[in-house]
Design brief:
single chain; 258 residues; mainly alpha; 5 helices; 4 strands; 47% helix; elongated
Length: 258
């Protein structure tokens, strides 16, 4: 086994065969005569003493817990991609029909996308040193987080009607800012509590779900507020003409008598 040698004169480092252990020779760089260390000068680093109970042979009885990483299976990846593809195709179809999507479709899409996006975001932002949650505990924690994420759009709608807006397209920019603050507050709070992420990570965790659902809603033609609604000359206060009530026909005035 080669012996590492450091010249005390020029500090050059090199290795020599172990057969020269304890012998003298010139440094290949500065030619100073140096002595090759022998086996008695070898530094041996021993493993730290294991604490805890041991068996009769001296081996430790307790074994360290191995960290298990979450590795999504093939069917989980395929299912998540299929859900995303179906939502995208559905949004494009609704946009092509030029009709306002029914409420049940919007609710179904928000719920269907919640868990896949929540799981994907948690996989990105979890602490690798801690390993993250796996198994049943992962399903429960991420399921709770996904349910609240999906419910934030329901809170958005309820707040709109609480402020007296007949349609979501009537929401003004100042109201939109308040509603988004409430939605992100709920999303960040449940992400911190259920997934134990940092506040900044929780903000990005909810942002993934919010941005994806917002983009799909825009593709489908859902008008969520005045800044996000399609305006036209006949629109009144941000309410598209197709959602306004149809005026009640009136009878023409009788002809004036001569």
């Amino acid at each position: 086994m080669p012996i590492p040698v450091t010249c005390p004169g020029c500090l050059a480092r090199f290795s020599v065969s172990d057969k020269f252990a304890g012998k003298q020779g010139p440094c290949p760089k500065c030619k100073q005569v140096i002595t090759v260390p022998d086996k008695t000068q070898e530094v041996v680093i021993h493993a730290p003493e294991t604490q805890g109970p041991k068996d009769s042979s001296g081996r430790p009885v307790l074994k360290p817990i191995r960290r298990v990483e979450f590795d999504p299976s093939t069917w989980q990846i395929i299912l998540a991609c299929a859900i995303a593809a179906c939502c995208l195709i559905g949004a494009i179809f609704l946009r092509a029909t030029s009709q306002s999507p029914p409420t049940w479709i919007l609710v179904s899409a928000a719920i269907a996308l919640a868990y896949p996006l929540t799981s994907m975001g948690y996989t990105f932002f979890k602490d690798d040193e801690l390993g993250g949650y796996i198994g049943k505990e992962r399903w429960i924690r991420l399921g709770t987080c996904a349910a609240v994420f999906a419910a934030t759009w329901g809170v958005y709608t309820l707040l709109a009607y609480y402020f007296g807006n007949r349609t979501l397209a009537e929401i003004e920019p100042i109201q939109l800012a308040i509603f988004l603050a409430v939605m992100f507050g709920l999303g960040v709070a449940v992400s911190v509590g259920a997934c134990e992420l940092e506040v900044g990570q929780s903000f990005l965790h909810y942002s993934i779900y919010f941005v994806v659902t917002l983009v799909l809603a825009a593709i489908a033609g859902v008008e969520l507020a005045q800044p996000l609604a399609s305006q036209s000359k006949n629109d009144i206060y941000g309410v598209p003409s197709r959602v306004r009530a149809t005026p009640i026909p009136t009878k023409p005035d009788s002809a004036a008598k001569p």
